[in-house]
Write a structure and sequence with these properties.
about 220 residues, alpha+beta, about 30% helix, about 20% strand, globular
């Protein structure tokens, strides 16, 4: 088995969404595209270059997903200090995420697997379980590929948004349905009220205040 590979010394050759679906399509685990790649998939175009491709699963789905990987792909768990260890060697007590998948033929990372919370009925925000969505709203079928809903991905980015996250927000918000937009705005007001993204959200105390993504008359 390959020796541990530091994160910083391993290049990325991220899989495209269709290749991810081909790789994981037969697993029994619940999985979905997440992060920026999910936003691009939902929007139907690339907002910006993405350094990696993310998928998410649940805690109970992580092991089945990793075990499904075909020969030629290996899974690596974090080991601190920007290092990883083979999945098989990771202690059970470790919070095994994010797990990175490497293409052994190239030595490059191709996929990052994040663990999110959920019940049988609903997705649950790992940072605050008060925030939940039924699975059929949290994960959408976009041309045959399970894809995290755009409003959910924006909530993940809202805690400490970077300039590149602002690009994602500005591209996605105007395209959200009214239901999705309202859910997102309520989510960040209640879960991440100190985010700079919450500044222009309508407050329940001032309902006449325009939301940032309303078209000006």
């Amino acid at each position: 088995m390959s020796s541990p590979v530091p994160f910083a010394e391993t290049r990325w050759e991220p899989l495209w969404p269709r290749a991810v679906a081909d790789l994981l399509g037969g697993t029994s685990a619940r999985w979905w595209l997440s992060g920026g790649v999910a936003l691009d998939r939902w929007l139907g175009r690339r907002i910006r270059e993405r350094p990696n491709t993310d998928v998410s699963t649940t805690a109970v789905g992580l092991a089945p997903l990793v075990e499904w990987l075909p020969a030629g792909f290996s899974a690596w768990a974090p080991a601190g200090d920007d290092a990883v260890i083979p999945w098989a060697d990771a202690p059970d007590v470790t919070d095994l995420q994010p797990v990175r998948v490497r293409d052994e033929s190239t030595g490059a990372w191709v996929l990052q697997v994040n663990v999110e919370d959920g019940t049988d009925a609903a997705w649950v925000y790992r940072r605050d379980p008060r925030l939940q969505l039924p699975w059929d709203r949290a994960v959408l079928d976009v041309d045959g590929i399970p894809t995290g809903a755009a409003e959910v991905q924006l909530v993940w980015k809202a805690l400490r948004p970077r300039p590149q996250d602002d690009l994602d927000k500005h591209a996605v918000l105007p395209e959200l349905s009214e239901e999705a937009r309202v859910w997102f705005e309520r989510a960040i007001l209640s879960i991440h009220p100190h985010s700079n993204w919450s500044i222009h959200v309508r407050s329940p105390l001032t309902p006449a205040k325009a939301s940032w993504n309303r078209t000006k008359s």
